[in-house]
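Please fill in the sequence for the structure shown.

STRUCTURE ENCODING:
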């Protein structure tokens, strides 16, 4: 189960104030790239599900993530989440496929 809180900030000044308030608690910044997938007929979106490949750094880590059945109450989202790490060989293969798909020379 993943729980996310989302803030709607009025402007850049509000963002700066929140950043200043939270900055003492900052531990690490994760450099990541997320690639989202759905069927041609939006089969996942229709079921409020999200399928994602999340790449960390260059080739440090890759996770396949499926989120479904999100419930939003008072700006707090609770969602069932299943994540699996890809093994390093499969990770590199998926990264190459995603790059090829992005530039239009292949597909998944």
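FILLED IN BY: designer on duty
SEQUENCE:
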């Amino acid at each position: 189960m993943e729980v996310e809180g989302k803030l709607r900030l009025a402007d850049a000044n509000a963002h700066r104030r929140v950043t200043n308030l939270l900055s003492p608690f900052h531990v690490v910044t994760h450099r990541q790239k997320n690639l989202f997938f759905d069927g041609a007929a939006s089969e996942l979106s229709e079921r409020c599900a999200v399928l994602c490949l999340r790449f960390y750094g260059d080739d440090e880590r890759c996770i396949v993530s499926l989120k479904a059945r999100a419930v939003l109450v008072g700006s707090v989202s609770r969602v069932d989440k299943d994540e699996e790490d890809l093994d390093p060989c499969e990770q590199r293969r998926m990264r190459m496929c995603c790059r090829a798909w992005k530039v239009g020379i292949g597909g998944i």
